Amino acid sequence: MYGERGRIALMLPYDNAVIEPEFARTLPAGLSAHVVRTTKTDRLELAEESLTMAPVAGHLRADVALYACNASSFLKGRVWHDEFLGRFQEKAGVPSESANSALMKLARHRKLRRLAVVTPYPEWLLEPLKKFVSDFGFEVVNIVGLGLEPIEINRLGPEASYDFAKKADVNDAEGIIIVATNFRTLEVLKRLESELKKPVMSSNQALMWMARKMLNIPANEAAATSITANWPEVDQ
Fold first, then answer.
1. Same structural domain for residues 42 and 90?
2. How many helices, marked H, and strands, marked E, lie in the chain?
3. Residues 18 and 133 in one domain
4. Residues 234, 134, 166, CA angle at the centre, nearest 5°?
5. Within the chain, which residues score under 70 in pLDDT?
6. What span, in angstroms and rounded, lies between the C-alpha atoms of 177 and 183?
7. Burial call 37-64: b when 16+ CB within 10 Å, e when fewer
8. CB burial class (10 A; 0-12, 13-18, 19+) of residue 1?
9. Is residue 51 domain-resident?
10. Could you give the CA distance from residue 211 to residue 28 in angstroms, rounded to a whole number?
11. Share of the chain above pLDDT 90, in %
12. Partners of 33 in the beta sheet?
């Protein structure tokens, strides 16, 4: 049986072409991830549609459900996000986290306070994103947006997240977060941390870390494939 150690339900936006390959390359043996894909293009309609689709987690016999869209769940603020995540978990019927909650928990877990933020999103989403991160108790010392709409983001290679993370780094930043599940980062996180001498975390990495934590899988357990992610060298 696929997922004998744990099954993950991944709720994805219609256009996401990145998180499935990144999860496939990092999951340890015995874990499986199964996608439920929304159809709406409007971000708030997408979030609401996901609530009607969340019960699919039960049909998948998933052990956890992850809402893998950043913009649609930070857009209206932390209070809205927390209420939405509670509704999503109730509908899914299993423990749930969002890309945003996972990323904030990973940054807190790594004992960071001042963050530089990188995202491929357009300019109008930067202020809501900054406020959302601030409402979790972090200080946003720099934020860089690429100005892209969803359909353009999944065309980018990892060199884009590498370049813009380096541009976003400032001396005051204790760490860098890369916000978007449709933005390829897996291959460059370890290199960025080595060169910048500080933690660099992405949405997908945070979701992978959170899934392992929820399923009681050691954070440093090797993936079933030969390619591994840059897991934080800290205790769970």
1. yes
2. 11, 8
3. no
4. 60
5. 225-236
6. 12
7. ebeeeebeebbebbbebbebbeebebbb
8. exposed
9. yes
10. 11
11. 87
12. 8
| Interatomic CA distance for residues 91 and 205, integer angstroms | 25
- Phi then psi dihedrals of residue 128, to 5 deg: -60, -35
Residue with tokens 């769940």: 73
- 1 domain residue, yes or no: no
Locate 23 and state its tokens: 């999860």
Both structure tokens of 94 = 């299993």
CA dihedral 100, 64, 6, 212 (to 10 degrees): 30
Number of CB atoms found within 10 A of residue 28's CB = 17
**What is the pLDDT at residue 151?**
81
pTM over 0.90: yes
Closest of 193, 138, 132 to residue 165, by C-alpha: 193
Specify the CATH number for the domain of residue 145: 3.40.50.1860
Task: Report the C-alpha gap between 175 and 117 in whole angstroms.
Answer: 9
What is residue 230's predicted lDDT score, i.e. its pLDDT? 54
